[in-house]
Amino acid sequence: MDFSTQAIPRIDPRRPWVLGPSGLKRIVLGDDSGSRDAALLAHGPAHKPLRSSGPFSQRLLVVAHAERGQLDDAAREAIAAAAILAGKDGEVLALLYGMQDAAPEALAELAVDRALTVADPGYAPEQKLALLQQLLQQESPHTVLFADRSEDADLGRRLACRARLSVVTDVVEIAADGVRRRQPGAGFSLRERAQVLLLARGVAEAKLPFVGKGERLQTAALPAISEQVQDLGSAASPASQLALEEADLIVSAGNGVSNVPGFLALAEALGAAVGASRVAVDDGRFSRDKQVGATGKTVQASAYIALGISGAVQHLQGIKSCRHVIAVNLDAAAPMIKRADLSIIDDCQSFISAFEALVRRERNLV
Amino acid sequence: MKIAVLIAPAVHPVSGRPCAGEADLAALALAQRLSSQVDVWYAGAADDAALADYLARGATHIHTLALAAGREVLSPLAEALQDYALVLCGARAGGGDGSGLLPYQLAEQLGRALLPDVLDLSKSDQQWQALQALPKGVRRTLAAKLPLVASVHARAASAVGWSYARLQQGKIQRKAATGAALPQVVLEPARRARALVAASKVSGHARMQGAIAGGEGKSAGIVVKQGDSVEKAQVVLDYLRQHQLVDF
Amino acid sequence: MSFSLAHALTGLFWLGALLLLGGLARRASLWQQGRSASVSWLGLLAMPKRYFVDIHHVVAREPAVARAHVAAAGGGVAILLLSALNYGLMLYQGWLDVLLVLMAVVMLLGARMMQARRLQAPPRLSQGRWQVLPARLRLFALGSLLAAGLLFAGPQLGLAGQLIAVVALLMLALGGAELALGIGLGWPMKHAVAGLLHLAFHPRVERFAGKSSDLKPLNLAAGELGVAKVEDFAWNRLLSFDACVQCGKCEAACPAYAAGQPLNPKKLIQDMVAAQSRGTDPAYAGNPHPGREATVVVKPGEDIVGSVLAAETLWSCTTCRACVENCPMLIEHVDTVVNLRRHVTLSRGEVPGKGSEALANLRNTDTVGGYPLAVRYHWAIDLDLPLLQPGEHTEWLLLAGEGAFDMRYQRALRALVKVLKAAGVNVAVLGAAERDCGDVARRLGDEAGFQRLAQANIATLAQYRFAHIVTPDPHVFHCLANEYPALGGQFDVWHHSKLLEHLLARRAIPLKADATPLPPLTFHDPCYLGRYNDGFNAPRNVLKGIGIKVVDMQRSGRDARCCGWGGGAAFTDIPGQRRIPDMRMDDIRETGTGRVAVACPNCTAMLEGVVGERADVIELAELVVERLA
Ligand SMILES: Cc1cc2nc3c(=O)[nH]c(=O)nc-3n(C[C@H](O)[C@H](O)[C@H](O)COP(=O)(O)OP(=O)(O)OC[C@H]3O[C@@H](n4cnc5c(N)ncnc54)[C@H](O)[C@@H]3O)c2cc1C
Ligand code: SF4
Ligand code: SF4
């Protein structure tokens, strides 16, 4: 790929590549891939020192559920918070569900000193609580940290209530004078640091300049305790049927999308929910429940890919809280381009087919 | 079957005025769908006006356990709710602490199972089945026997529309209650939270690089004009992967 | 023989009169279903003036129809009066027969003209009984002509005369049935009786004394929550529906109908007729609500909305008043729409689309869009616009309205402030103390929300000292000027177009001296400035004052087409075949100017929301600021 910097006016020519705040490389334009990788290597894991070699006199416990063997940003941040708070004599202990296969290096890279990895049985709060209480007894960590979202949030609350531990949820800041949480309608509230902390996103910088020891405790099995609630299994609804308000990834079509079947095929391949501008809905290309904007739905996706949408204020109102907006448009002056984090100046139709082919290839969907 | 629904005023994020919380409304609507005998409960210090939205949106009668501000509501609530086989509450209140702890505490106190983030409830044979909402549209089916506490997801059901007539007809019944004093919290104005950052031994140059990249600020979007569609598609996929927006 | 014909006519006259009275009694019993209303019997005396002046005002816009109606109705009324004298009172005077013949000829001509028009009836006219009415009237006129002629010159004719007499009596009986039975059976001639009574007992009598476009407050404390069933209408509202002549003027003027949304104001009125008459009137034979069946099922005892009337019909209305403005029978469609909405909103809480969200925002934030009040004047941060403090005095208080939160409209507001400053106008704002005026709440039927906001605003304004209020938002203008007085708020409110006109007329605005001719443009009249407040000239004078020629659209001024925003329609957003602003943009395109001046934040947003090639949309103040010296 060869992008000349002149054609990319929004990028400062003095920084052909940049390191994102989370340590992830941002798109490198106007440079060839070789030099880009070389540049990144300088900050690669190989050079990171060990955070602390001990001996440890106290410890923090982080509990996290992995999805397909991977921890998400929120869980990484929880571990990073523990590592930053631990101090020289503090150990970062982790109880990780669904990471039985993780290599010690991977655990070390996460800055975990010692980890107990357990297969994730799905919904089993009583068993998970029992194991957790066992662990608390053995290791007596002074703080237990969870990411405050989904399964971790649930388990954290259960633990605090069952073991009657002090708890602060939605922690946005851990400081010397205590922890701060967002208080509905009242800014922050300052609390004493509790035994259980449930952490909101952004509480710690996940990118760390050090590694942990990465030791692994014996892979434990969950204690055989009967559950009051039975798990009858879960199912993911197909993305196309996903309610827009709930979707995490949305591809949205505007007046510039003429090939609707192609567009829907892309959504299918990506596993993205389908949205549309009012014009596309008015034309009958999409049903009304797909409309995004002032008179349609307000969406909160992490990523919103706007294809052939000009970006009228009424449309932008609906995507105010989307974290990443990607625009594809022929017109580089369209307001959507100003809102977007990444803009592609291209014809929608050819982009859609190229993108769909690429996604299919990468996912082995053929 | 009698169902108890717990509600509490939410704080409107823009104006700070009391209003109905989304999840509590969903709990109310779900309960009304399941049974014609729904009792609505509130414990706390809010005045009747703060509960008005619930009346206007279908709660015909609210039982209020009136407590002084800064008192814990758990024990009076647990006492009042003992006889209800099914207790529903919003997964998270939009006001007060909004910590989402109450359903857990209540289940613990009442010694019952908790069904979290419920989208739907239905009875089958001797059991109740719940559809639980997980992130990214995943749904999990849970089954349990009564008595139960369920925390209801905000999208579970929509309450009837806001109506002035219902507001006028609705009744709030107050009963004095007592609860232990809660520790005082210190409130501060909102600001940008400071993230924990590890002290870094990286070179000044590298730190500069990081600083230039800035926060997640929206100032500099990247615009890609050159290349063919295939290359541009690759750019988009790279971006999605770098930000962990796709999982392949 | 002549003796017997005359007596037959007497008999026929009294029979007809009795049938008419019986029919009227039946109809009156239907009207009695409604609630009581405070009316003045003096209205009966005012009837002629209202008929000849106020109705004429509307009808005269279509001169051919007006002439036909004057001839047919005038002739008909004269025939009836003369018959009452001559035959009813059995005077049997020959000279009265001569007059009768003359009037019959006039009526005949009128009915002929009507019949001719019916041959190429515009689609807005109802068919069915209405289509054959002119023929029936001709029959009646001809019968009168023959009978009276016969009686005048009769004795000579012998047997032929007797035959003619029989024919004449038959014609009179057939044609007269139309007149006598109309009111009782809901036939077309119902309109004559109901229409006259409607003029006497009009639910909005003040419209005969001047402009009257304000919605009337509900007495919420007394439990008034709008109209659910027929019985909840005031009786004179029910009467007003019966006045409808199904001319379809409203249908032709209605933007929602043209856009294919499920609203036909004529059908709406006829739905009300069907509801009150329990469906005993002849079936409706006009255009349906677009996309809907014409037949209605009346279920006695049920709420109107949901049975007779679909909720979507109700929510399609933009409250633009084009129907009211065009109705020859002075029927008040908007009142009816809002009365029904009030029930749906206040009692049921069923506001569709984003309407309920807008109402929730108003309750929770006092703004339609859910914005913090504190940011309303952020656009003026560098304009040195004083914030009025309680107790301080300003000449002009500027209320920016909801447009202040719209980045696009902020340009217009900045332009307005600059112009006012350049003209040395002493102006200040309320800042965060300004709440929404309540327009959207009220039009969406949330009377409780409106009254709360209005009372709060009135209380706030009472703390400040100012001489006049100026606002660029016609909805704010209308609410404060016309609707707050009923709640105790009396203010001298100006729309900015009038203030700009005033300043230009006094040469208070320093304009550029150079006379480079400016390209012409067209002007879009906002409903709430134009039809609601007769503010047609001020904006045009402003444009003239800065040297811009206005090329009016075919539908402009009183006939202007709504932009589609009003009445909360942009929020309820009922689907149709087209969008109203798209049609308005077509109107604009037809002028060939490529630019349109607007004088309302909502028109600005609606017209700029049109996609594809479209005219530039420029606010009045933006045009003036460009000409500042
Ligand atoms: C009161 C009100 C409420 C509204 N509510 C909403 C709402 O809820 N949601 C909403 O979406 N809109 C809403 N609108 C309409 C809004 O103002 C815009 O008209 C609409 O969003 C435009 O849709 P669009 O971008 O798809 O179409 P256009 O404005 O026609 O834009 C199409 C875009 O596609 C690009 N394009 C064209 N062809 C191609 C191609 N081959 N490849 C790539 N790009 C191409 C063009 O450059 C252009 O930028 C509302 C308007 C009003 C007045
Ligand atoms: S309501 Fe008025 S304008 Fe409409 S059809 Fe009836 S008489 Fe004509
Ligand atoms: S007010 Fe306007 S939109 Fe409503 S019925 Fe009358 S013409 Fe139609």
Can you put this structure into words, describing what you see?
The complex is a heterotrimer of chains A (366), B (248) and C (629). Chain A has helices spanning 33-41, 73-86, 104-109, 125-139, 150-163, 260-270, 278-282, 313-316, 335-339, 348-362; strands at residues 58-65, 90-97, 114-118, 143-147, 167-175, 178-182, 188-191, 196-199, 215-216, 230-236, 249-253, 273-276, 303-307, 324-329, 342-345. With 366 residues, chain A is of the alpha/beta class. Chain A has a 9-stranded mixed beta sheet with strand order 7-6-5-8-4-1-2-3-9, sandwiched between helices. Chain A has a 5-stranded parallel beta sheet with strand order 12-11-13-14-15. Chain B has 248 residues and is an alpha/beta fold. Chain B has helices at 22-34, 52-56, 74-81, 102-110, 164-169, 204-213, 229-242, and strands spanning 2-6, 9-11, 18-20, 37-44, 61-66, 86-90, 113-124, 127-133, 138-144, 148-152, 171-176, 186-188, 222-224. Chain B has a 9-stranded mixed beta sheet, sandwiched between helices. A two-stranded antiparallel ribbon of chain B has the order 2-3. Chain C has a 4-stranded parallel beta sheet. In chain C, strands 5-6-7 form a 3-stranded parallel beta sheet. In chain C, helix 19 (474-483) links the parallel strand 3 and strand 4. Chain C starts with a helix and ends with a helix. Classes of the chains: A alpha/beta (366), B alpha/beta (248), C mainly alpha (629). Chains in contact: A-B, A-C, B-C. At the A-B interface, helix 2, helix 5, strand 5, strand 6 and strand 7 of A face helix 4, strand 7, strand 8, strand 9 and strand 12 of B. Strand 15 (342-345) of chain A pairs parallel with strand 13 (222-224) of chain B. The complex binds flavin-adenine dinucleotide (FAD) and iron/sulfur cluster (2 copies). Flavin-adenine dinucleotide sits between chains A (254-256, 277-280, 291-296, 308-310, 312, 314-315, 318, 329-331, 334, 347-349) and C (570, 605-606, 609, 611). Chain A: InterPro entries: DHS-like_NAD/FAD-binding_dom (IPR029035), ETF_a/b_N (IPR014730), ETF_a/FixB (IPR001308), ETF_asu_C (IPR014731), Rossmann-like_a/b/a_fold (IPR014729).
